[in-house]
Design brief:
Layout lengths: L2 H41 L3 H9 L9 H28 L3 H15 L3 H27 L3 H8 L4 H4 L2 H27 L3 H14 L4 H21 L2 E2 L7 E2 L4 E3 L3 E2 L5 E2 L2 E3 L9 E5 L6 E7 L8 E8 L2 E9 L5 E6 L5 E7 L6 E8 L1
Antiparallel strand pairs: 1-13, 2-7, 3-6, 4-5, 6-13, 7-12, 8-11, 8-13, 9-10, 9-12
Helix pairs in contact: 1-2, 2-3, 3-4, 3-5, 4-5, 5-6, 5-8, 6-8, 8-9, 8-10, 9-10
Length: about 350
Amino acid sequence: MTTVEKINSSLQIATMELEAAWAEYHEISTAKTSYMNAIAAMENEDYLNAIQELFNVTEADTEHYADALTKTDECRSLYVSQQVAIATAYIQNSEYEQAINTVDTAEGQMGMQDELENVRNDAETSWKAAVIQQAENTAENGDYEAALELLSNVPDYLYDGEEITACRSELYAAWKASILQQANDAAANEDYSTSLSVIEDGLGIFENDSELLALKETISEQYDDYLRRTTPVSLAELEPYQQGGELRYSTDSVEDIFGNTYRTYITTGLFGSDGNGDTWCIDGIYQTFSGTIFIPSTKTSVEDYVTIYGDGVKLLDVTVHGGEDPTPFNLDVTGVQDLTVVLNGGWWGLYIGEPILTP
């Protein structure tokens, strides 16, 4: 090896040693800076940044490396405690979702920790208890829909949990019981229209519910009976249980010769009647039977007859002639079970206009 080559080789070795010394110095300097930054972050309770800085302290910094390892564990513990305190404060302020989010973030950094899991459990338990209490308070005012809506404001994993599921079932049961009670109360006051409306609304919530459907049937029957007992009705709208007079019934309007209009009527028709009657069962629920008798003819020679019986007792016996004014009547049928109407009329026709039974 020539002298020049020896010199060049020595220079290369010296350069490499210098570079290595510089790299070591830089590593130690960086580690020391990171250590000091970590200490400052710890003083500011910025434990995540402190941990990151401590990770940059290598074994090259023999002065601080061992302490950096110790302080890393210390920062992890302090960070967990810090986040536990933050989450606990959220719980105390009823900010349960924020508390759980805080725990999630902390465990994303530190992994699952017993302290954090305990706080999570506290937050979930407190959240469930609070929302259940709110729902129950709301339900006490009869607003079950709003109460159930409150329960739905929690995450699905809480909503489907045992406690809220049980509360939800209790609220639905109480809601249905309230609907049944409202419907029964209205029916007890003979407000059947309101009662049936309440039931229909309930069936919109509890579709095909057997209790509501059964009550609807019962109340409907009571309503029909109530209307029958309290609402005036035209005899023309009822079916006789005995037919012997070949009478005709209509709910189409008709006029007499004076232009008076009758909405419903009973008539012999244009072919007359043989004098037999039809009988209706009116169950003793009506007080009066009224109407107007007329012949749609101006011929005074036309003569027809009307006889009305209550339980076989003659209540009215009238002879009418063509051209005469219509003959009104109003009979007391209190307690009458069977009402019989006999029309004996010719081919001109004999009418009872507006044959009304009034309770």
